[in-house]
Amino acid sequence: MTKMTQKYKVIIWILVIGDISLAQTSSSEKIMEADDSCKTCDVLVRKMEYLETKFLEQQLELKTLIEQIMHTQDNLVKIANEKMEKREIDPTEINSTDLQEHSCPDYQHQVMLTDSTNALEQSNYATSCSEESTKVSGKYSLRLFPNETPIHGYCEQETAKGGWLVIQRRFDGSVDFYRNWTDYRDGFGDVDGEFWFGLEKVHRLTRNRNHVLMIELEDLKGKFVYAQYDGFEIGSE
C-alpha cells in the first residue's frame, strides 16, 4: 500500500510539473508574439509619420507654386499699369524679375501652356491645342490624356503663333480665385468664362513632355505684356 501511494504521488508530481512547464511555454510564446506585434506597430507608425511628412512637404511646395503664379500675375499688372500711365508699354521690358504686388481690373489675365513637342495621336479629338485644326481661339473638347474621356479646354490660337492651352483665365472678376488647396488641385470655374484648369491636370500634362508657360496680361485696348518660362513642370501631390 505504501509503494502504491508513493508511486501515485510521484505520478501526480510529474503531471503537475508537466502542466507548469506547458503553462510557462505558452506564456513565453504569448510574450514573444506581443513583442513581435509591438515591433510591427513601431515600424508602421514610423512609415506613417514619414509619409505624412512627405505629403505635407509636397502640399506646401505646390501651395507655394500657386502663390508664386498669382503673385507674378499681380506684379505684371502693376508694371503694366505704371507703363500705361507713362504711355510707354514695351513687352520686351517686362520679365519675371521686375515684379511687385498689385491688382488691376482693367487687365485680362491668361496663363497658358504649349507643348514644345509634336506628339501625334490618331483620334477624333485633338490631343493638344497645337493640333486643333481650325486654329480659332475658343472652347474645345480635347483628348489630353490617352484612353481617357475628352475634357473641355480653352485654346488660344492668336498669341505667339497659337497652340496654347489656357490653364487660367481672369477678365471680369466674376470668379473668386482665393480658394483652398482642393479647388486649386481639381480646378474651378467654367471654360466659357473665368476658370482655373487644375494642378492635377497640369501635372499630368507636364510630367512626360516639355512645356512652355506664358503669363499674359492684356488691356482693354488690346495691348499686352507677358512673362514666359521654358521647361515648365509641376510636381506630383
Automatic annotation (TrEMBL):
Compartment(s): Secreted
SMART domains attached to this UniProt entry: FBG
Main location: secreted
Limits of the Fibrinogen C-terminal domain: 120-237
Gene Ontology MF terms in the entry: extracellular matrix structural constituent; protein-macromolecule adaptor activity
GO-annotated cellular components: fibrinogen complex
Name under which the protein is recorded: Putative ficolin
The UniProt record lists the keyword Transmembrane: no
One Pfam family of this chain: Fibrinogen_C
Keywords: Coiled coil, Disulfide bond, Glycoprotein, Secreted, Signal
